[in-house]
Design brief:
Blueprint lengths: L11 H15 L3 E5 L9 H6 L4 E3 L4 H13 L3 E7 H7 L1 H10 L5 E5 L17 H6 L5 E3 L4 H13 L4 E4 L21 E4 L4 E5 L3 H14 L4 E5 L2 E3 L3 H11 L1 E9 L4 H12 L3 E7 L9 H7 L4 H13 L2
Parallel strand pairs: 1-2, 1-3, 3-4, 4-6, 5-6, 8-9, 8-11, 11-12
Antiparallel strand pairs: 5-10, 7-9
Helix pairs in contact: 1-7, 3-5, 8-12, 9-10
Length: 317
């Protein structure tokens, strides 16, 4: 069945916050650690309900991750929340050593990822986080596409031991999954069947991929759309199947074209089922300052941009 887009836009941080509060009521081991980001992480409700279970370390991300690791070692389930750019950029050593190498049960939540901070510029764009985190052993990396998936990912994270990096945006997105959707760690979700080409995306770009598929359909091109929410471990079987059955792949991500989702997929393709690919993202540059929608347009991370990339592959078949 092909997915249909809900016209209403949702902030996935709301789904995160609501799920976290529900989990907090069910399990007193759930705690939150923030870097003076109670508002932007939307954990004010959690703080009000469980004031003794939210720790604000101030603007000290390295310390924040270390505190999270200590809490995990004491038997708690910490959700360590901060802007994705600062969580990964400032505290990468602690993520590597205190969380991943030590295999502690810490859930790292990168808020306002990609280029969602827009007008705050290159210092606040988080377009390297997939590359950094997926290179670290033991660390699961997930970027949900809508509120339904976000809620299920947070539920799964609380119940599944081990370190995780969960990448959430603040940009509004429609629901892309129906009420029967069930998130599975490490499994791609097929949102649209197709035989001519495969479009693979995650996070805010899943909706753009679905819109691009509708544009391609008008040209007689039947596009499969995969939501690859789990970047690590990647769904190799779905990628190989798509390559063999559709013969071409376009990936789209709100991230550098180096080391992210497209790179992870290309690694699978080149070893198992080589086909033509286009990797859409930020092409190895610092993204400029500008509002988030303009930045997506600037880098061709739109329905039209994905459509044109797919058309170029099919034209050269």
């Amino acid at each position: 069945m092909n997915a249909t887009l809900d016209a209403k836009l949702y902030d996935c941080r709301d789904a995160f916050a609501e799920t976290l509060e529900r989990l907090g009521e069910q399990d007193e081991r759930i705690v939150v650690v923030v870097n003076d980001s109670v508002g932007s992480s939307k954990v004010g409700g959690f703080k009000k309900k469980f004031p003794d279970r939210l720790i604000n370390v101030g603007i000290a991300e390295q310390n924040m991750v270390g505190v999270g690791a200590g809490l995990a070692n004491a038997g708690f389930i910490p959700f360590v929340c901060a802007a994705a750019c600062f969580l990964t950029g400032r505290a990468l050593e602690q993520i590597k050593a205190d969380v991943a190498y030590s295999n502690t049960n810490v859930k790292l939540v990168g808020i306002s990822s990609g280029m969602a901070y827009g007008a705050l510029g290159p210092t606040h764009h988080s377009i390297e986080d997939f590359a950094w985190t997926r290179a670290i052993a033991n660390l699961t990396v997930i970027a949900p596409a809508d509120p339904t998936e976000t809620s299920q990912v947070i539920d799964m994270a609380a119940k599944t031991p081990g370190p995780m990096f969960l990448r959430l945006s603040r940009m509004g997105v429609p629901e892309v999954h129906d009420k029967g959707y069930n998130f599975e760690l490490g499994k791609a979700a097929t949102l649209r069947e197709g035989k001519d080409i495969t479009l693979i995306a995650n996070g805010v770009l899943v909706t753009k991929a679905l819109e691009a598929a509708s544009l391609l359909a008008k040209d007689g091109i039947d596009a499969r759309v995969l939501n690859m929410a789990t970047v690590k471990p990647i769904d190799k079987a779905a990628i190989i199947k798509a390559a063999r059955e559709t013969g071409a792949i376009v990936t789209a991500e709100e991230h550098s074209t180096h080391g992210g989702l497209g790179s992870a997929i290309a690694e699978v393709v080149v070893e198992n089922a080589p086909v033509q690919m286009r990797i859409l993202g930020v092409p190895g540059v610092f993204a400029p300052t500008g509002e988030a929608p303009w930045l997506l347009e600037h880098f061709g991370l739109t329905a039209q941009g994905i459509y044109e990339a797919a058309k170029s592959l099919k034209t050269h078949d």
